[in-house]
Amino acid sequence: MSDDDMGEVLAEVGPRLRRIRKERGATLAGLSGATGISVSTLSRLESGLRKPSLELLLPIARAHEVALDELVGAPSVRDPRVRAAPISRHGRTYWPLTRQPGGLQAFKVLVPQGNEEPEPRTHEGYEWLYVLSGRLRLVLGGHDAVLTAGEVVEFDTRVPHWFGSTGEGPAEFLSLFGPQGERIHVRARPKQSKRTAREGGEGHRRTTEDDGRELFPDRQATA
Known about the structure:
Elements: H1 3-23, H2 28-35, H3 39-47, H4 54-64, H5 68-72, E1 87-89, E2 92-96, E3 105-111, E4 126-133, E5 135-140, E6 143-148, E7 152-156, E8 161-165, E9 171-177, H6 194-201, H7 208-215
Helix pairs in contact: 1-3
């Protein structure tokens, strides 16, 4: 819960306490006698001049015979749909599929038909791609492959790589990555030894700046 949400919840507690008390026909004096909380404290709670605490709310909830949640309430759940505006860079269109900063980030990418010259680049991290439609050309190290709808690839981005149009039509794909270059496992892998895991861990870290190099290739990267 964000600080704004917390502030909204606390601001609504006082009016809710007063409403519930009046719905039950209780007076401040009567509630004070049932809870052991002074009339002045109850009055300040209802007016928002006293910050609600668990030790105050629990006896009030018992006296009214309601759940604690009914006194506290909760912030309304916002629309979960992500409606971020698309981003256009270098002829490609990116639709952000996540809206929280940091952590795992997802994009849908549209590559238009064209005759691009591959310009492989490298950076720290790990990339995962899933082709939605069309044909996507991937140059990775010594490999030059054409991926079709339904195919998935993952690779270490320290290996020179490039992906783009085959010249035969547009292609759409999903791209997933995290700020530390977390791997997205799509198949079972042999368990690494502790030594191998230690040696590989440093190499798979990615910074936020590195993430931007893949989406925005005009940023500095090693060709």
